[in-house]
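Sequence, please.
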């Protein structure tokens, strides 16, 4: 039995609980918060959910949970629980959770900026939270800490662009806790505070910005505390002075704070150690902008010299001597915001500096501050550790701070005042301070060489008792003293002290007091008379006219005196003048005083500043204050009051006002007018910006210190007189009206004092006088003269304060009557509308509107004024603010009946006007802050409108609808405007995006009000839509007119209202702020807990409204896109509810048209927009869409067609979702998936011609993706697909919807596309594909357009393509088989295989890496995939290289086609591929494993040929089962090896690239690994094998032919290799020759040769070479090579994959120079061998044989066909004949041709043998980056082969063999045959040609010899010409690093 809990609601898991062993167990982790719902009877088990997973309910043991106090909201089924902790603490926890997710995401995406900022914020916030929950703070500290926490949260949210938190006093405000308009104002204020904090943190050096938030605070203070004094004073005491110094004007800013230090370096008072603190108070706002420093001066008290070893070190110990100075800038402290000032004080160190001389001590702080002066070297104290202090800013009145921060002021904090008055002097503040600054002095040396050590003693003398007054204040808290002694500077007659002294002299003593300055010379080396008096000065504090001594500098006379002058009688010197200004007041006899002679060359300078609230330095003020002493001059004194400056008045404001009212009370008839003017002048002074802060002083005076009980009688009459007689003095009236509110305050206070004095028995005239005054004011306001405008405006601005004061004496209704009458008296045309509205706004905000009686009078009149102004869009901002204030006054949601009636009054007056205004200003494009369409006004109007809707109850809605129910047009118009406004509110940006609370409150109000406003849709408007006749009852209700035109108009309006409602509902459901899925988990949880999902109720409401349409649904079938967009909103319940609407629309569409063609187009277009562009929908939606609509279509007439449509749309959805999930324009990841999805989508859309526009858009996108990776071939085929859709017609086609093509003819667009395609094909080097396009364009230009200019251009392009096909060396593509295994792959790739067209240099690793960029979790698969891998969740990718099965081209059959042409088709335009898997068949022969090694060949066919639109094609057919025997493997291997050798040989002759040839020779001649001629002979060319395999005779013969051909190729390669290598490779070359000879010997046992085969004879006969002309066949099988083989020498394929070289790198040694080949006259450029040279070939040593002639028979008809290939054949024939001549020994190679010059460090590259079928051999890639191949231009002759030119070598060679010349060679042509540069052999351009080659004896056995040797008879005449290997152009070969070869191995 489970019981619902009441107290146990919230807990924390204290241990883990897995919940697996318990039925319905809830898994918990330690620290997880749980919401407890129920508990078992025995209380051992609890039932609930985790706070973060509320959808998972379960049970868990109670002993695993620690119960905490909580707050339960919405108790019941939908309750939520919150921990009962401080709201700020909960907010910090929530914020940290949300920021944590953002922090992790920033780390993942690599956003280092946000990560670092957020990390610091979170660390600081966690520290503050820990401090908050510690419970160790005082209330003051907790309050300041909360303030700092909220500031940091708001600052962080602002930087992260998170939601704004609305706050009041730091506390978070919920959306339903206040009025909508109040919530809007709170958001505004919070936004401004956040912006201010952000700007102040970002611009800390900007003082103006930092002070914006403190402008309302008038007083600021600096808390100071000296923590430690770290200076060693050698056992002496010290006085440490701290002063605020203004560096701008180089003056001290405050008094000096004195901290006394004893000999131990601490305070004399033990309790004050570390707590010597003060508050520098009374800083104003302007003071914070000054350049303020804290100056520290340390004065030691001790001997003249601290070192006792000197004579000066043995004197008195009470001298005040300079020690050190330090300064500290306070700019950062003064400009810090309030939040940062609340932080704890941080220790600050002040470093001290010593002066160079004593006299610099007083100005050393200036030197340290001034940049120019501080550059001088200043000695630092050797024992200086600095002074450690703490400082902190305090803002506000000092008395209030004492209440708020009691702990701060309990530490005996002293008060250090500002020098001068504070910005505000409150009444009652009595201050009488005199500041004296000892500036400097000039003394006479008196005949001595050294200057004096002057000490100044200051004392204040009371003349009445001739005593010193104890009034010298050393600091707050210190006892006043009688004397002050200055610092002593050694040996200077012009000392400068700059010391501040504060004198606190009683006011009554000022007149009889003077200050005396005594000057003494101090000596430190005499025991007696250490201080000797030598002069004095004095100054009197009062002048003869009764005013005080003026502020500023004073130059005082110095009078000579000695210690004998006891100063017992000050009168003796007081008769003397104390300064030059006092000299004129003294007689000559008085100036000549023998007791005190004046020294004319000595002066003493002081500065005085008096801060007194009782004394004045102004004579006019003094006369006013003493008016009773001279009553006859009162009138003149009052008149002279206007000449007194404001500074003097505000200092003694209270005394001045008391004096004026005392004069008024004394004789009002005589002085009233002057007193009135005096008051106006004083109030005018206070209105000055300099003294604006003193207005609060005046208010305080009126409330607390004013005592004129009869003043109101006279002031009211004078105010009325000014109002009535304004035309007499306009300026005077304006000044009076500016002071109107203060004068009225005096009147009200005077009346209150009068009634208090008379006991409440007034004379009754006050009310009548007030009414009379306002009657005059109303008459005055009605006047329309221009000269009264300023006075009217001034009076109206100050009226509201008068009404507030009147409430103290009159009833609220009387005051409201006077106020509204005054406001309404202002005419509309006066231009004072803004001022009138300000007065009304103040009244609405005040107490008058809270009183029900006054509100009943104010509200109707205010609504009338506001409605007319809003309707005319006049003063919209202030009008809407007043409306908001009116609505905000109804704070409680539970309204009384009276308040409900007032709401109805507001609704009737404003809702229509606000609706129209919103519609208009939302469309207004006027620019300006006060323009109607400005964002601030739109948001203000919206908040007022929504606030009004929230205040409306059900009765208000019913009343509003009932007023329009009798007029359907009016009702339709209202609802239409309403839903239009609602639509704008949820779609337009009304409020900033971070105002989430405001937006949710707005949506809640809209949702609730929609339910009321939708009732008239089906109550009143449904009949009109259905066009049904009304009943009699309804006829009386609607009063529908019988006019058919009006009726049709009403019907159209009703339909429009319904359409607008559905549009609004769709916009509401799809607005971004309600899409919870896009928010973070924490934010989503907050919104769901607080508001729920607002989309569901709106969706169900829209569905119910749709269902009520009944048979009229067909009228709204055009709203398909709206409902389709709604169905895409996440939420299965919502989707299931709305999807049936799509079924209804299908039904309506079929009933009206009988098909779904139009509906299909609409659905397809909108789904493309919603899914791809707006990123809506998922696979769950696709499944739900299909299942729900399939279910809805059952039993319908259109079921079959509907099922087809639904299936088609579901397929489209699947492709769109796949495409959307990977497409991101600015993201280069997922490129493979992007292209695949685009292609699938294109194929789907291509089936429907109506979607061609969308299809074209994806064509463009696919084209752009190809170009990003320079895939020009695929980009060309992509555009070709688009071009195929156009014809060569003149039909005009519209502009491309994507802005790529203008409106033009169809052929023009196709022509543009063709030209772009040709450019891409040219860049992709697939010119063969571009030639048909060129021909098509040429036909267009020649036969249709007759545009020969374009024809010429296209023909040139076509010719260029043909030339490039032959001349440009292209690398063949490489193809790979890619297979994807795993169910987690997307459907388009899951368990499918593709053929990838790779680049020539691609490897398996490259392809795999590019695919893993799309699938980072995929693993490479190196074995066969089984079902577990295919059906598993893991992702595997298998990549292998495949071979191409080249398709036969019928055009080339029977033709001798150059290999450059056929090479292209070997790797392009293919769709069939294969790869092999080796396996052992039968018993494996360990000695010959190849004998039983078979291949399983798998053939693959793709969907389309490659290259194409994509770089890959899906495999559609896999053919298995073809088994390749070992013999066939050998044949294929031989073909491949021979082709590679021929190709490398060709490259070596043409380009001089010998390294790949060396590598290949090493692999073929040296390394016979698992294959080769020897192995093939032992396995296949045996009699036993022929008997066992009689069906393989043809293949055996083919193998023999291939062996013969390979021996020939090897011999040619050896010749070329010998010519190109240098000395470093010569030993390796010798080894090649030796091993090749051994290989030949191992095969050649029978030297007899059967002669050429029939096929070969026919081939030779065709070339004109007879068999009998061949030389001795015993020496070689071949006397002349095959023509076809030589022609295909450079066309052989299957070369190793060699990386591309970088541009501009060399292939040959740097010592060789390349240049163009210039053939000599009458010579063959491709052959420079003379016939005479042939006679010397074949000689050995000195003996020579007769040269054999080489026959050159040709048919006459073949001369024209003799081309470069024939020339190549001719040269090759000569080489073959030369090689056939044997030397005398017959078995050794002749002398080796001269090597190439040495290339340091070069070595032969080790290579591998022939590779197995289906894989490519590894290319010899150098260890370092290979140099690039310099591109060679088309038709450019190849560089000549470098050769050695050493004379020694030539002479040696010439002695060994005869010199071959051109003339000795037989000529075959009369004229030289031109040769193609690309086919020029290694002898091109060489004069020595064959003479350096010598004779190479290579005896290759023929097939007949092999028959005798191997006992296997080769049938005669049955052999076919060997198959030409696949033709592939080899890539350029990189040079190997140059190393010395090691021949030791």
């Amino acid at each position: 039995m489970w019981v619902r809990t009441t107290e146990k609601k919230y807990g924390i898991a204290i241990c883990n609980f897995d919940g697996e062993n318990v039925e319905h167990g809830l898994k918990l982790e330690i620290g997880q918060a749980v919401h407890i719902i129920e508990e078992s009877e025995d209380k051992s088990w609890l039932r609930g959910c985790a706070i973060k997973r509320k959808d998972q309910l379960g049970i868990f043991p109670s002993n695993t949970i620690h119960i905490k106090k909580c707050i339960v909201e919405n108790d019941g089924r939908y309750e939520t629980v919150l921990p009962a902790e401080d709201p700020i603490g909960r907010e910090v926890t929530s914020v940290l959770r949300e920021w944590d997710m953002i922090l992790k995401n920033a780390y993942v995406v690599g956003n280092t900026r946000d990560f670092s900022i957020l990390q610091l914020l979170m660390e600081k916030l966690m520290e503050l939270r820990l401090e908050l929950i510690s419970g160790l703070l005082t209330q003051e500290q907790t309050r300041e800490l909360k303030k700092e926490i909220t500031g940091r949260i708001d600052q962080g949210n602002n930087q992260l662009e998170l939601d704004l938190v609305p706050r009041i006093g730091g506390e978070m405000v919920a959306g339903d806790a206040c009025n909508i308009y109040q919530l809007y104002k709170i958001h505004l204020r919070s936004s401004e505070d956040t912006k201010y904090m952000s700007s102040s943190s970002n611009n800390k050096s900007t003082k103006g910005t930092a002070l914006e938030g403190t402008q309302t605070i008038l007083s600021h203070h600096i808390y100071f505390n000296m923590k430690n004094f770290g200076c060693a004073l050698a056992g002496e005491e010290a006085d440490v002075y701290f002063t605020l110094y203004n560096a701008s004007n180089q003056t001290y800013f405050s008094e000096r704070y004195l901290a006394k230090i004893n000999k131990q370096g601490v305070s004399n008072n033990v309790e004050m150690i570390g707590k010597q603190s003060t508050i520098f108070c009374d800083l104003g706002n302007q003071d914070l902008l000054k350049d303020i420093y804290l100056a520290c001066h340390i004065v030691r008290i001790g001997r003249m010299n601290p070192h006792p070893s000197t004579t000066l070190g043995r004197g008195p110990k009470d001298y005040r001597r300079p020690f050190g100075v330090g300064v500290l800038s306070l700019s950062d402290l003064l400009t810090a915001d309030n939040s940062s000032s609340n932080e704890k004080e941080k220790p600050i160190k002040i470093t001290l500096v010593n002066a160079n001389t004593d006299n610099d001590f007083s100005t050393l702080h200036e030197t340290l501050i001034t940049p120019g002066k501080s550059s001088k070297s200043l000695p630092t104290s050797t024992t200086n550790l600095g002074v450690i202090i703490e400082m902190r800013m305090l803002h506000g009145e000092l008395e209030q701070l004492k209440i708020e921060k009691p702990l701060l002021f309990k530490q005996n904090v002293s008060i250090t005042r500002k020098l001068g008055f504070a910005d505000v002097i409150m009444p009652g503040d009595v201050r009488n301070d005199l500041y004296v600054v000892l500036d400097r002095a000039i003394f006479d040396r008196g005949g001595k060489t050294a200057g004096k050590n002057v000490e100044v003693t200051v004392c204040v003398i009371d003349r009445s008792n001739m005593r010193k007054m104890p009034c010298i204040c050393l600091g707050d808290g210190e006892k006043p003293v009688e004397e002050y002694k200055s610092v002593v500077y050694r040996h200077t007659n012009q000392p400068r002290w700059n010391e501040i002294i504060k004198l606190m002299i009683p006011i009554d003593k000022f007149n009889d007091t003077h200050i005396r300055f005594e000057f003494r010379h101090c000596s430190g080396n005499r025991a007696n008379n250490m201080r000797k008096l030598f002069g004095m000065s004095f100054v009197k504090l009062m002048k003869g006219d009764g005013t005080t001594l003026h502020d500023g500098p004073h130059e005082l006379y110095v009078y000579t005196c000695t210690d004998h002058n006891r100063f017992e009688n000050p009168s003796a010197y007081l008769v003397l003048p104390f300064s030059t200004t006092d000299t004129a007041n003294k007689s000559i006899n008085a100036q000549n005083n023998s007791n005190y002679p004046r020294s004319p060359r000595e002066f003493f300078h002081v500065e005085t500043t008096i801060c007194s609230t009782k004394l004045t330095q102004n004579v006019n003020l003094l006369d006013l204050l003493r008016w009773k002493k001279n009553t006859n001059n009162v009138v003149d004194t009052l008149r002279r009051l206007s000449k007194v400056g404001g500074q003097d008045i505000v200092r003694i404001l209270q005394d001045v006002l008391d004096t004026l009212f005392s004069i008024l009370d004394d004789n009002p008839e005589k002085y009233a007018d002057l007193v009135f003017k005096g008051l106006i002048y004083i109030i005018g002074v206070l209105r000055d910006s300099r003294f604006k802060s003193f207005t609060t002083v005046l208010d305080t005076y009126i409330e607390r210190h004013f005592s004129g009980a009869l003043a109101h009688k006279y002031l009211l009459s004078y105010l009325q007189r000014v109002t009535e007689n304004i035309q007499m003095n306009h300026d005077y009236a304006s000044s009076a009206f500016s002071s109107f509110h203060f004068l009225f305050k005096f009147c009200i206070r005077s009346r209150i004092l009068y009634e208090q004095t008379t006991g409440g028995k007034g004379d009754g005239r006050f009310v009548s006088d007030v009414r009379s005054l306002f009657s005059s004011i109303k008459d005055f306001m009605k006047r329309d003269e221009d000269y009264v405008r300023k006075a009217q405006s001034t009076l109206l601005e100050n009226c509201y304060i008068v009404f507030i004061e009147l409430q103290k004496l009159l009833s609220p209704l009387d005051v409201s009557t006077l106020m509204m009458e005054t406001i309404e008296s202002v005419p509309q045309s006066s231009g004072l509308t803004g001022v009138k509205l300000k007065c009304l706004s103040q009244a609405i905000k005040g107490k008058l509107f809270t009183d029900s009686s006054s509100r009943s009078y104010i509200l109707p009149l205010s609504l009338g004024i506001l409605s007319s102004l809003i309707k005319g869009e006049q003063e919209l901002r202030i009008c809407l603010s007043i409306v908001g204030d009116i609505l905000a006054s109804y704070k409680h949601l539970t309204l009384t009946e009276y308040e409900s009636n007032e709401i109805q009054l507001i609704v009737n007056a404003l809702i229509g006007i606000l609706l129209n205004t919103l519609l208009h200003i939302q469309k207004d494009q006027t620019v300006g802050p006060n323009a109607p369409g400005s964002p601030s006004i739109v948001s203000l109007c919206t908040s007022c409108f929504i606030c009004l809707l929230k205040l409306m109850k059900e009765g208000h809605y019913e009343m509003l609808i009932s007023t329009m129910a009798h007029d359907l047009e009016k009702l339709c118009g209202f609802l239409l405007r309403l839903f239009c406004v609602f639509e704008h509110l949820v779609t337009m940006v009304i409020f900033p995006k971070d105002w989430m609370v405001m937006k949710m409150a707005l949506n809640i109000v809209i949702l609730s009000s929609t339910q009321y406003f939708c009732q008239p849709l089906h109550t009143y408007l449904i009949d009109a839509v259905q066009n049904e006749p009304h009943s009699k009852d309804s006829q009386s209700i609607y009063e529908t007119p019988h006019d058919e035109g009006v009726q049709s108009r009403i019907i159209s309006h009703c339909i429009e209202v319904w359409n607008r409602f559905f549009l609004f509902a769709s916009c509401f459901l799809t607005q971004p702020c309600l899409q919870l899925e896009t928010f973070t988990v924490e934010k989503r949880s907050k919104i769901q807990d607080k508001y729920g999902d607002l989309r569901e109720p709106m969706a169900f409401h829209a569905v119910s409204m749709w269902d009520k349409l009944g048979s009229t649904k067909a009228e709204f079938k055009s709203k398909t896109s709206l409902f389709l967009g709604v169905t895409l909103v996440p939420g299965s319940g919502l989707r299931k509810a709305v999807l049936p609407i799509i079924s209804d629309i299908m039904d309506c569409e079929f009933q009206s048209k009988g098909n779904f063609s139009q509906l299909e187009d609409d659905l397809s277009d909108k789904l493309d927009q919603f899914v791809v562009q707006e990123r809506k929908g998922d696979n769950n939606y696709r499944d739900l869409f299909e299942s729900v609509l399939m279910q809805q279509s059952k039993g319908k007439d259109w079921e079959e067609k509907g099922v087809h449509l639904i299936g088609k749309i579901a397929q489209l959805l699947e492709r769109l979702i796949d495409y959307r999930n990977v497409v991101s324009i600015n993201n280069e990841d997922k490129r493979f998936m992007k292209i695949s999805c685009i292609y699938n989508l294109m194929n789907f859309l291509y089936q429907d011609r109506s979607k061609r526009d969308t299809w074209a858009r994806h064509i463009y996108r696919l084209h752009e993706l190809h170009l990003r990776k320079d895939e020009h071939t695929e980009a060309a085929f992509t555009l070709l697909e688009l071009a195929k859709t156009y014809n060569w017609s003149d039909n005009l086609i519209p502009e491309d919807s994507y802005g790529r093509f203008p409106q033009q003819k169809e052929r023009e667009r196709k022509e543009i596309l063709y030209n772009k395609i040709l450019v891409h094909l040219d860049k992709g080097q697939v010119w063969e594909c571009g030639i048909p396009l060129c021909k098509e364009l040429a036909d267009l230009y020649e036969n249709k357009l007759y545009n020969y200019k374009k024809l010429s251009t296209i023909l040139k392009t076509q010719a260029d393509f043909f030339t490039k096909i032959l001349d440009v060396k292209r690398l063949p593509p490489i193809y790979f088989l890619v297979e994807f295994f795993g169910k987690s792959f997307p459907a388009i790739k899951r368990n499918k295989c593709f053929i990838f067209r790779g680049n020539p240099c691609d490897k398996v690793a490259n392809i795999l890496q590019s695919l893993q960029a799309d699938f980072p979790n995929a693993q490479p698969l190196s074995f066969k995939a089984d079902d577990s891998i295919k059906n598993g969740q893991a992702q595997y990718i298998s990549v292998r290289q495949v071979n191409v099965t080249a398709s036969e081209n019928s055009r080339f059959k029977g033709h001798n086609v150059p290999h450059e042409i056929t090479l292209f088709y070997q790797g392009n335009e293919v769709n069939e591929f294969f790869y092999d898997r080796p396996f052992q068949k039968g018993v494996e022969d360990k000695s010959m494993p190849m004998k039983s090694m078979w291949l399983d060949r798998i053939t693959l066919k793709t969907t389309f040929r490659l290259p194409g639109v994509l770089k890959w094609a899906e495999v559609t057919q896999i053919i298995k089962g073809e088994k390749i025997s070992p013999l066939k493997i050998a044949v294929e291997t031989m073909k491949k090896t021979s082709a590679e050798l021929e190709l490398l040989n060709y490259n070596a002759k043409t380009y001089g690239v010998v390294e790949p040839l060396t590598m290949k020779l090493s692999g073929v001649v040296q390394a016979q690994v698992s294959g080769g001629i020897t192995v093939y002979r032992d396995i296949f060319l045996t009699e036993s094998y022929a008997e066992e395999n009689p069906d393989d005779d043809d293949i055996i013969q083919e193998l023999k032919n291939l062996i013969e051909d390979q021996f020939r190729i090897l011999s040619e390669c050896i010749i070329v290799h010998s010519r190109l290598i240098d000395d470093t490779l010569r030993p390796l070359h010798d080894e090649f020759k030796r091993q090749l000879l051994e290989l030949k010997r191992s095969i050649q046992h029978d030297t007899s040769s059967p002669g050429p085969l029939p096929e070969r004879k026919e081939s030779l006969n065709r070339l004109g070479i007879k068999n009998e002309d061949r030389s001795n066949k015993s020496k070689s099988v071949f006397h002349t090579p095959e023509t076809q083989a030589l022609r295909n020498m450079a066309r052989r394929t299957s070369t190793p994959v060699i990386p591309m070289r970088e541009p501009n790198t060399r292939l040959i040694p740097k010592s060789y120079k390349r240049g163009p080949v210039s053939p000599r006259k009458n010579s063959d450029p491709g052959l420079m061998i003379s016939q005479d040279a042939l006679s010397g070939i074949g000689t050995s040593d000195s003996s020579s044989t007769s040269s054999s002639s080489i026959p050159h028979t040709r048919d006459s008809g073949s001369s024209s066909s003799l081309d470069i290939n024939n020339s190549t054949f001719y040269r090759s024939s000569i080489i073959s004949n030369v090689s056939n001549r044997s030397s005398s020994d017959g078995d050794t190679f002749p002398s080796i041709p001269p090597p190439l010059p040495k290339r340091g460090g070069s070595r032969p590259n080790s290579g591998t043998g022939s590779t197995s079928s289906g894989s490519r051999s590894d290319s010899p890639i150098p260890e370092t980056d290979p140099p690039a191949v310099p591109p060679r231009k088309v038709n450019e002759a190849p560089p000549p082969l470098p050769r050695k030119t050493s004379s020694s070598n030539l002479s040696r060679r010439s002695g060994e063999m005869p010199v071959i010349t051109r003339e000795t060679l037989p000529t075959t042509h009369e004229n030289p045959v031109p040769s193609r540069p690309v086919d020029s052999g290694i002898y091109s351009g060489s004069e020595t040609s064959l003479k350096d080659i010598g004779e190479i004896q290579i005896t290759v056995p023929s097939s007949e010899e092999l028959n005798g040797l191997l006992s296997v008879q080769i049938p005669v005449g049955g052999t076919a010409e060997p198959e030409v290997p696949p033709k592939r152009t080899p890539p350029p070969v990189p040079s190997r690093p140059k190393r010395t070869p090691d021949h030791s191995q």
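The first strand starts at residue 2 and ends at 4.
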